[in-house]
Amino acid sequence: MIFGTPVSWFLVELFSFIVFFIVVSHAVKQENSFLRILELFGFMLGAAIFENVGTNVVHTYYYDFRRIIMVGGVPLEILLLEASIWYAAFNLAKKLNLPVWAIPFVVGLFGSVQDMTIDPAAVFDRVALPQTVADSINLTHPGALGNGIMSGQWNWTDPGYEGGFFGIPFYNYSGWMYLMFYYTVYAMVGDWLYRKLPSSLSWIGNLYPFIAGIIQAFSFGNPLGRFLLFGKIDPSQSTLTSELLILCLNFAFAIALLIAFRKKMKPMDLKQDGLILFAIPVILHIYDIVYAFARGTTVAYVPVLVVSAIHFAYLFLLIRQNRKLMPVD
Fold first, then answer.
1. DSSP assignment, residue 328?
2. Which of 17, 52, 65, 205: CA 20 to 30 A from 79?
3. Pick the residue with more confidence: 326 or 244?
4. DSSP secondary structure string for all residues of 138-186
5. What does the CA dihedral 218, 224, 226, 230 come to, rounded to 10 degrees?
6. What digits encode the pLDDT tens for the residues 248-286?
7. Backbone angles phi, psi at 154, to 5 degrees
8. What is the pLDDT of residues 21-44, one digit of tens each?
9. Is 16 in contact with 81 (CB distance < 8 Å)?
């Protein structure tokens, strides 16, 4: 244990700070760098609200509290990684020169694919932990595992999802997709409005990242938002089949956009942006692969290897296409 948290979990927390630092270092070099940084924290605000609703209100899952820094019922590491993934995905989607309306769907796809290696590696990294007074809080959650015997970095409270994506509910990945999608939409609208403001009111425009985050957190409660997650307007009526079907449709639409507009891509400056556009996604996947095998999390072996390979192949194709677009010296 390090500072009261298992060593492997501590390493994830440390890793999340390193990744976030790299992302912020890139953001400060961009045009309107202050807004780019505010967007990161706006995303974190929305994700924190959304995650705390999931853990403390809906009780679909909970995070083990044995972390160094918690934001309510959510470890800070989760918010840092989610914001970093959104930032990398958003920047790559913009570089692909997609139509504005298509960018949020692609950002959502990239973010969800990234999560397909994070979740299996982390959820089933279960550690035997001594029971404490705080465990009694977790035990109020149906099906909670935080009883001092075994606990993962986070735990799904519904035991009926063994047939999902390697033990993870299918709707989790649609949820990731639209968590990224909604914030991208609201941040893009906010940035557009900001540019319309006179300079004397620019301080008001600086609020849009946080407004976007707040709206993002509550965008799942409407009928359409629920349908895009569960394949049913009433989540209590959803099934593994309905959730898998809507996830496939969500992914298929975003992939179709990438295919349809694949020739629109313009040259990218990999010296300037390569670390964020390509290295961050690769590093995150590699970390999940090493983490899963080092911890002996056998259930995660297939998803971390297969999903990473598919994502790597796509990124390689983009790099190859970029080389063809670069002017010859």
1. P
2. 205
3. 244
4. HTTSTT--TTTT-B-SEEES-GGGTTSBTTB-HHHHHHHHHHHHHHHHH
5. -150
6. 999 999 999 999 998 888 888 888 888 899 999 999 999
7. -145, 160
8. 999 999 999 988 999 999 999 999
9. yes
Q: At 63, which helix (H) or strand (E)? A: strand 61-63
Total length of the chain: 329
Closest to 229 in 3D by CA, of 181, 266, 261: 181
Q: Rounded to whole angstroms, how far apart are CA atoms 217 and 221?
A: 9
Under a CB-based contact definition with an 8 Å cutoff, are residues 78 and 69 in contact? Answer: no
* Amino acid present at 196: K
Report the Cα–Cα distance between both ends of the chain, in Å, rounded: 55
- pLDDT of 37: 95
The structure tokens listed for 229 are 């997650």
Q: What percent of the chain has a predicted confidence (pLDDT) above 70?
A: 90
Name the pTM for this structure.
0.91
Averaged pLDDT score across all residues of the chain? 86
**5 has which bridge partners?**
2
Bridge partner list, 9: none
How far, in Å, CA of 179 to CA of 48, rounded? Answer: 11
H-run or E-run covering 70? strand 70-71
H helices of the chain, where? Answer: 7-27, 33-53, 76-95, 103-123, 135-138, 170-196, 202-205, 208-217, 223-230, 240-260, 270-274, 280-294, 301-325
- Amino acid, res. 160: G
166-194 pLDDT, tens digit per residue, is 888 899 999 999 999 999 999 999 998 88
Which of 180, 250, 173, 177 is closest to 212 using CA atoms?
Answer: 180
Of these ranges, 97-111, 138-152, 224-238, the one predicted with the greatest mean pLDDT is 97-111
CA atoms of 52 and 46, how far apart (whole Å):
10
Structure tokens belonging to residue 119 = 């979740």
CA distance 243 to 174: 8
